[in-house]
Amino acid sequence: MPRVLLIEDDPSVREGVELGLRRRGHEVRTAATGEAGLAALGEFRPDLLLLDLMLPGMNGVQVCRRVRESSQLPIIMLTARGDDFDVVIGLEAGADDYIVKPARTEVIEARIRAVLRRIEEPGGGRPAIEHHGALAVDRAGLTVAKSGERLALAPSELKLLLHLTAAPEQVFSRQQLLEHVWEHNYHGDARLVDACVRRLRAKIEDTPGDPRYIQTLRGFGYRFGPL
Hints:
This protein is α/β, with parallel strands linked by helices. Helix content is 39%, strand content 20%. It starts with a strand and ends with a strand. This is DNA-binding response regulator.
């Protein structure tokens, strides 16, 4: 089972989430502050980080940015304010998903599995490595390189790019991307998609403000290409 590091300052929430995940077989380490959580990262080596947004001292957004400086560890934010502008900032900082508190353990478990689930390679005799302009997408190895230099993509960024490149020129609505990439089978939050697209463009585009690869069709959604 995935090892989970939980950084949450509220003792009742921290203990409840920890107990629920342990009952489902997860090994869980907890921390009450961002500083303590960062210190535990190297020692515990988790598979996923559950990160409270509103932490005392170093807040969740700052922790997320620090983690992303050196790691593509999957990150799910916990927030009591799902409509808060801080959620957007957290997503821009590199979080892969977020959960509004309070949340049932089965919901948290489902989100963890969705983020960590192995990306299945599309069939149909696709080449091992696809070339799209300066991008080389290795679907088997789950890596992406630009002009020969390997890119560090967070899980949600990689899943999004793999999904878009599997059907170049096909337009996907935000809801379709939420369902296929984040596995949110309800009317989800388009901010997840938009923030991830902005982060991905910053890594793969020469000019993110004038994108060549991921194009926006206003009122419809996104597509990959044409190049």
